[in-house]
Specification:
mainly alpha; MPC; transmembrane; membrane; Mitochondrial pyruvate carrier
Length: about 120
């Protein structure tokens, strides 16, 4: 058997493993699309970790999202069948929200900064 025939056989077997009826059926369920659509929350939080100024972080919303993800991590394993994709989504969100919460606490409670903003003088003609 040549190398190209062997790689063709391997790729065909891999495709059969990935694109079988069971996997395709799973892709059409809310068990898959619910967590996939929910991934927008942790993605936004991760992007905000670098791009959002700490003074604009909402403490109550960060706390709410942290509690929300902690609760739903438990429920993603309590349902049958267990939804590991949803669990992963909430683990990532939990870590991102804890990072945002740390930035919020650091900015508002642990560091001193000048709260006075310079007043812009208007030009007079």
């Amino acid at each position: 058997m040549s190398t190209s025939q062997a790689s063709s056989t391997v790729s065909r077997k891999l495709a059969q493993q990935i694109f079988n009826k069971q996997n395709l059926k799973y892709l059409l369920t809310t068990h898959f699309w619910g967590p996939v659509s929910n991934f927008g929350i942790p993605v936004a939080a991760i992007v905000d970790l670098k791009n959002k100024p700490a003074d604009t972080i909402s403490g109550p919303m960060t706390l709410a999202l942290t509690v929300y993800s902690a609760i739903f991590m438990k429920y993603s394993l309590a349902i049958t069948p267990k939804n590991y994709l949803l669990l992963g989504c909430h683990i990532i969100n939990e870590v991102a929200q804890l990072g945002q919460g740390a930035r919020f606490i650091n900015y508002h409670y642990l560091t001193k900064h000048d709260d006075t903003k310079p007043i812009k003088k208007e030009k007079t003609a």
